[in-house]
Here is the input.
Amino acid sequence: MLFFCQLFFRFGKHTTTTSQGKPRFLYTFFTNDFILPSFYGNFAALIRPMLQVQEIRNAFDDISSRLAKRGKRFDQELNDVVALDDKRKHTQTELDSLLASLNAISKEIGDCFKAGKRDEAEALKAKTVEIKEQTKQLESELREAIDALTDALTQIPNAPHDSVPTGKTPEENEIILSHGSEPSLTTNKPHWELCEQYDLIDFELGVKVTGAGFPVYKGKGARLQRALINFFLDEGLKQGYNEIQPPIFINEASGFGTGQLPDKEGQMYHMTVDNLFAIPTAEVPLTNLYRDVIVNKDDFPIKNMGYTPCFRREAGSYGKDVRGLNRLHQFDKVEIIQITHPDESYKTLEEMSLYVQSLLQKLGLHYRVLRLCGGDMGFTSALTYDMEVYSAAQEKWLEVSSVSCFETFQSNRLKLRFKNDDGKMQYAHTLNGSALALPRIVAALLENNQTDSGIEMPEVLRPYLGFDRID
RNA sequence: GGAGAAGUGGCAGAGUGGUCGAAUGCACUUGUCUUGAAAACAAGCGAGGGUCACACCUCCGGGGGUUCGAAUCCCUCCUUCUCCGCCA
Here is the structure.
């Protein structure tokens, strides 16, 4: 934890803005040494990770009760934050006044020299010695105070939306709708058997080349992948999403921006030689395009999407859940993100949920939508809908998409802001969702459409596929 | 990988030890003028902390140092650009 705190502290001041919402890329963040920077230069970045201190102070009870939806109370943590922020303020005020007097004396000395009063100047110089000692002391105190505050703040997850059900486990998620019905099948093989039977995906070969969880797609299996990616991108285009091809490796700063670091560092593949991480989702680069950006409020909503392979170490998972396509180290996904005005974000979340559902409907899949309970939601989310498709052969629901609203939780770290109608800087809201992740869609398509003589492909995919069925 | 050059406000671009948070231009906002627009003119216009509001404090790529005082001097790191090499 300490390690990553130090990393986090090395955010610099890199304000920039955009015209027409186009981000600028600034990569002057980190150095290879581990010395903490001067607190002042980085103050803004330091004091504003995750939940906003100001928000905690202003709406303590509200945030407290929202956090309780996660099945645990955070009052102690919240109180700590306020107390640590008080300490920070006191220390800083003290230091500031000391610096003010130092500045005043320096100016006086300058004036004395100009007026030729050498002796007077020397006398004043002597006065600064003691003050400088004191500032050094206070500087280190302030540094410690900020350190402690940031540490406390990063322990607190996002405050769930009012509509989020209280709960700790997936059983407490709320099923808000179900669409379609279970297919009636004459044959009922799991997808890994179908993949072998029709030579679509070779898991063994992947093991040989790389390792478990890195499948090799072959023939119509590979073409199905390509068709789905194109289908998803074309549909997104129709919805007004701007297509982006981001890098699939990211630096540390990006990992912090979207909250993968420091929490999920073990989940990412890390290339230590160059200190880069393979992205676990396109969310990371797509959202980080807007790090340190002041967007024009007229550009809301900003809608971007990107197809990328995703890489996840999935350390610690094993057993039946990882069979076949259910859990992979490398998989493909089209991700959609939006950046909105705070007033619009929940309306946007519904819109994104409907869009993802429309994809599932076009693919003819039986699905349901869950509103995740507080305890099952990600650390950074305020409200998450999960879409699950039914796998007839495995007789279970598979999560294929997750759409979330983060409110200001990410933008706070990213320093993604806009100037509101009052001319004040305000954090934008960020949202994202998968639209969609391929593997489980492929699994469901294969299993739910199997017949004795082959696998029928959905109508919408046929133009992309160039074939109607797999046999 | 080797050799050079450079990193200042939304952009361009001055500024080499003290009235510099930073000239000037562009962009932007508001006002005057105009039927309207343009042009012209006038004013405003970086971010963060702090305050009821001021005051005040911090930030000129990051970090460290010299100095009473640093955008300006020194060290170091990072990044970008140009040339060479290698290569899809």
In short: Residues 90 and 142 of chain A are 9 Å apart (CA to CA). Chain A has 15 helices and 20 strands.
